[in-house]
Amino acid sequence: MKTQIIPMSESNIQSEGLAPALECLRSEGLVVFPTETVYGLGAHGLVTEAVEKIFIAKGRPADNPLILHIASMDMLEQVARDYEKYLGLLKAFWPGPLTVVLPKKDIVPDVVTAGLDTVAVRWPSGKIARALIEAAGFPLAAPSANRSGRPSPTTAQMAFHDLEGRVPFIIDGGPCELGLESTVVDLSGDVQRILRPGALTYEDLLPFLPVLQGDTKKNEPLRSPGMKYRHYKPDIKIIVFDEVSEIGPLVERHQAGKPMVLGLGKGDGLSPFIQFNDYADFAQRLYSVFFELERTGCDLVLIQRPEERGLGRALLNRILKASDII
Ligand code: TXA
Ligand code: MG
C-alpha cells in the first residue's frame, strides 16, 4: 500500500483536500490526522471491520481499548450514557484534550472497547480533526498514530516513519499544538479517577471533580488498560536526573559518546543541552526531540526530572515510561 500525504493548513481547510480521506474512512479505511494533542490513526468508530484495521496497522494488543473522537454532543449521546451530571466539566474542556470514560451504548462495537462495558470519548479541538469528524458524521476510533510501543507522533513525518505502507492517507497539518496525549478520566463509577495524566492537568480538573482520584502517586495502580504496556519507547537510552552534578558521572558510567541533556535549566556546560522554556514547551517538543535524537546517533538522553505539578505530572509519567532506569 502506498501512503499518500495530504498537506493541509489549519487556517485554510479545503473540502477538496479532505475528500479522499473522507472517502477512505467511509469505505472502512484508515486515515492519520492531526489533533491538538498528537496525531491519531482514525477509522469509522462504529464499524468493526474498520476498527480492526487499526489494531493490525499499529500492532496493538486487542485488549487495549480505543478512544472515540466526536464533534458534537449528539455524537456523545449516540455512544455513551450517564454523562448528564458531568455536563459542566464537558462544557468547560470540550473541545479539548479531555477523554472521559463512560458507560457505553450497544452501538459501540466490542472491538473499540476491548469488550469493556465502558467507552472512552473525546471531542478534540484541533481544527482539522474537527472538520474531518464533522464532515464524516460518525465518530472516529483513533489511537495515537505510532507503531505500538513507540512514542506518539506529533508531526506527520513521525507518523509516516512508523506507518508508511500501512495506511493509505496521512493528513499533514504541521506540528501538534500540545504534543502530549489527552488526560483520560474515568467517570463511569461512583469515584472519578484519572487513568492517564495528560495535557489537561489535575489542577484544571479539580474544581469540577472535587473528589478526583489519581494524583499519579507512584505506587497507585493506573486502571487504564493501556498503561500496563511499555509505551513511548524510542530507540535510545533515557535516564532521569535530579541534580546537574549527576550528569558527568552518568555520561561516564554509560560510556556515552553522544549524550544529550534535556531540561528547563542550562545543564553543566559539559554536555550538549536542549533547553525548554517551560513545561508547555517541554511537552510540545518532547516526542519530536526523541525522534530527532534517534536520527542523530545520540546514545544517551539525560532528562531533568519535572516537578509533580501541573503539566509536570504528565511529563514525568511519559518520561519514566520511556526511560531505562526508573
Ligand atoms: O490525545 C489522545 O488521547 C490521542 C489523540 C489521537 O486523541 N489518542 C490516544 O489514544 O492517546 P491511545 O489509544 O494511544 O490511548 C488511549 C488510552 C489508552 O491508555 C487506553 O487504554 C485508554 O485510553 N482507554 C480507552 N478506552 C478505555 C476504557 N473504556 N476504559 C479505560 N481506559 C480506556
Ligand atoms: Mg498511544
Description:
The radius of gyration is 20 Å and the shape is globular. With 326 residues, the protein is α/β, with parallel strands linked by helices. It has helices spanning 15-26, 48-58, 73-79, 87-93, 110-113, 127-136, 156-163, 202-205, 247-253, 279-296, 311-322; strands at 4-7, 31-33, 40-44, 67-69, 98-103, 118-122, 140-141, 169-172, 183-186, 193-196, 238-241, 259-263, 273-275, 300-304. The strands form 2 sheets. It has a 10-stranded mixed sheet with strand order 1-8-2-3-7-4-6-5-9-10, sandwiched between helices. A 4-stranded parallel sheet has the order 11-14-12-13, sandwiched between helices. The longest helix is centred in the C-terminal third of the chain and has 18 residues, at 279-296. Residues 143-144, 152 line the site of magnesium ion.
Secondary structure category:
alpha/beta
Count the E strands.
Answer: 14
Looking at the structure, what is the overall shape? globular
Number of helices: 11
Global Rg = 20 Å
Strand proportion, as a percent range, falls in: 15-25%
Q: List cofactors, ions and other ligands.
A: threonylcarbamoyladenylate, magnesium ion
Major sheet: order of its strands? Answer: 1-8-2-3-7-4-6-5-9-10
Taking the alpha carbons of the first and last residues, their distance comes to 40 Å
**Order of secondary-structure elements:** EHEEHEHHEHEHEHEEEHEHEEHEH
Short description:
The chain is α/β, with parallel strands linked by helices. The protein has 11 helices and 14 strands.
SSE topology:
Elements (H helix, E strand, L loop, with lengths): L3 E4 L7 H12 L4 E3 L6 E5 L3 H11 L8 E3 L3 H7 L7 H7 L4 E6 L6 H4 L4 E5 L4 H10 L3 E2 L14 H8 L5 E4 L10 E4 L6 E4 L5 H4 L32 E4 L5 H7 L5 E5 L9 E3 L3 H18 L3 E5 L6 H12 L4
Parallel strand pairs: 1-8, 2-8, 4-6, 5-9, 11-14, 12-13, 12-14
Antiparallel strand pairs: 2-3, 3-7, 4-7, 5-6, 9-10
Bound molecules: threonylcarbamoyladenylate (TXA) and magnesium ion.
Magnesium ion binds next to loops.
